[in-house]
Amino acid sequence: MHVLLRRSKMLIFVMRLAPLVFLVTLLHVFLAVRLLPALAAATALWPLFALLLVVSAAAMPLPFVQRFPLPERWRKPVRWVGLLAMGWFSSLFVLAVLRDVALLSAWAASRLAGFGMVRAQWEQTSALAVVALATADSLVGFFFARRTPPVRRVEVPIAGLPARLAGFTIAQLSDLHVGPTIRAGYIGRIVDQVNRLGADMIAITGDLVDGSVPELREHVAPLARLRARHGTFVVTGNHEYYAGAHAWIAELKRLGLKVLLNEHVVLQTRSVHGAQTDEEVLESMLLVAGVTDYTAGHFDTAHASDPRQALHDAPPLVSTRILLAHQPRSAPAAAEAGFQLQLSGHTHGGQFFPWNLFVPLQQPFTAGLHRLQDMWVYVSRGTGYWGPPKRLGAPSEITLITLRRADD
Fold first, then answer.
1. GO CC annotation: what is one (predicted)?
2. Domains of the chain
3. How far is CA 117 from the centre of its chain?
4. What is the pLDDT of residues 67-106, one digit of tens each?
5. In this structure, are residues 350 and 359 in contact, taking their beta carbons and an 8 Å threshold?
6. Which residues, 6+ apart, have CB-to-CB distance to 400 below 8 Å?
7. How far apart are CA 396 and CA 232, in angstroms?
8. Closest by alpha carbon to 382, among 342, 332, 327?
9. Which tens digit of pLDDT belongs to each residue from 363-388?
10. The whole model's pTM is what?
């Protein structure tokens, strides 16, 4: 009976994986056909490249399978290999396609100009260049992904900001993606870095996890050590809904984090003791709101993202209003609702080429500080990474936002 059960699990595993395996295999065959003949003629190391292609094709689908029939001790290294292969393959595939375009263009130019082209030499040299560049940028990208993110300091000039709020600081974390390769040690280093900043408040703008609470509870636990005068506020990202948002919301609250679900809090940023006027008390108040992910309504209609709802019953005399929203596409609704600043993430700044080219097709802003009507939008490049441990041209960041008066 035990043997039959194990075989049935294996069969289900293979069936679920079949479409992805077919596509990945097809793409690797393309690379083998386009690169291996030229590499075989250029270097005696071509069998190593062939072996790497086989390992890559076999390992790449595995990180996307939540449950597969392998002993626990093998699951982590298998996922690591699969995600590393994904980053290497991505660059290899793009460079191989660009190589084909370059070779075709060179051949066409030589025909039009009427001179001969040493095609074999060009093919061999370019094939070696493709493999070398893909490997080099994967190694460099690995370093930039796995280092402790540097602090990016951003000043936001807000018109009409009360003098008592000038200098208020927010440490923003976004897109941590705790999961197969981002674990407790990595998160612990980030927590230590943030705590050293001594920010007035901490904002986590979504996509905190890539997995279930039982699987990742111990790896998210270091976030309970985050320290700021006004606490840590969290909003959900799309990946929380993939992983079971309700369970994660409960777990984050258990850790002492304040999850904002289309709601707000009013912070009293200065002491109210002593002989202060009502005006002085009001001027030291800051409204911080948070919305659920832009797509949350597809997973739970009760969680439909709504910046206006986040201001329900907000005190009208508290004029400085900040919104935490995972996706930049929440910005038009936030500007209409009357916020002065929106903090977002989601894009990873593109993470690495060529994915950075696709972000503007979905999001109004990719990274950095932008203006929309009367509202500022800051988009973090992310503190972690998704998928391959690889970042190029889009460095990870811990952001320290400082509010300034626009007329200072």
1. membrane
2. 2-145 (no CATH), 151-405 (3.60.21.10)
3. 45
4. 555 666 777 888 899 999 999 999 999 999 999 999 888 8
5. yes
6. 151, 152, 153, 154, 169, 170, 171, 172, 197, 199
7. 20
8. 327
9. 999 999 999 999 999 999 999 999 99
10. 0.90
